[in-house]
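QA checklist item 7 of 12: single-chain prediction sanity check.
[x] sequence parsed
[x] length recorded as 379
[x] structure emitted
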Amino acid sequence: MEQQKNHLIIVAGEASGDAHAACLVNAIKDLDSNVTFSGLGGERMASSGVELYADLTKIAVIGFIEVLKHYSEFKKLFDLILIKARETNAKAVILVDYPGFNLKLAKKLKKMGIKVIYYISPQVWAWNEKRVELIKNVVDKMIVLFEFEKEFYAKKGLDVVYVGHPLVDEAKANETRDSVMEETGLEKSKKTIALLPGSRQKEITRLLPVMINAAKNLYQKNQDLQFLILKASTISDNLLNKYLSKDFPIKILNNRSYDGINASDFCLVASGTATLEVAIFDKPMVVIYKTSFLTWALAKLLIKIPYIGLVNVVAQKKVVPECVQLDATEIKIVSETISILSDPIKTKSIKSDLTKVKNALGAPGASMRAAKEILSSLR
């Protein structure tokens, strides 16, 4: 593309990052309509007017081994961003989360003399504080979503600003519970359990089978329960259909997670941003995480905090149960689910803690605050 006076490159690598990046782009455009964008991302960024070089969300993977399998694809896109940053004379490159790719990119961009703004911090406070020195050397401004992240980076001497979490604005249902029940053929009088197996293919193959088996077990114990899979736009129908069977009544809601969460009473949710989305709707949940054995073994050596679910990290205590790796089993998930659903006092306590988590995400307007910080730093 031709050089433009106010051009920014933005890079996001998975569904949640794509959504947050799109909201950020829209906010920046609201403040300055002359700013143009190109980069790597997904459908949401494209719809917000970003000229995509490629859809990086299509190859979103988890874990060290999985990344190696896609090395050539990542390398090609990595080199392309460096070329485009020069060709477009970009005023800055905005990196959104996705640290495995983006921190390496930041290092190269800094050597090229290009301004680097990082939006949504890598979780180095959880697994590798040593990388803070790298971040300090290659990132010009860090924009974070959590108050504790600001304190963490400020102590390390970084230029950091806290804006709150964009989910406070984004996580809103468009349809009522009743309309979702009617659309999916579920009964309004029954308790609904939503399955959120993730937005990456590997998450589906590892988590959905155990989630469905747990749902079948729960249904056998209580046929007044009903189940709803919330399918991300990045997941194909063919992949999902591999794990469904005609003998078990389970419905699917496509690409409308917020409507589905709002319509449900309880959630089985893949660890990640989705746990905060569920928290915003005050829905009790079980957090589930499972990866390859080698990736998990390496992660165990690095992780420095007691919890993996963001909802528990933000609360700084165990608000909801986590079924992780060897504990991510049908029996464990069923046990944790029943212990909550059968105990009104526990359910009430969890909902109270989830409200505190929601309040800790900050006031509405995070994307606009981030946009103002970015434009201010460019001036």
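[x] summary fact logged: The chain has two domains: 7-165+362-378, 177-360.
[ ] second reviewer sign-off
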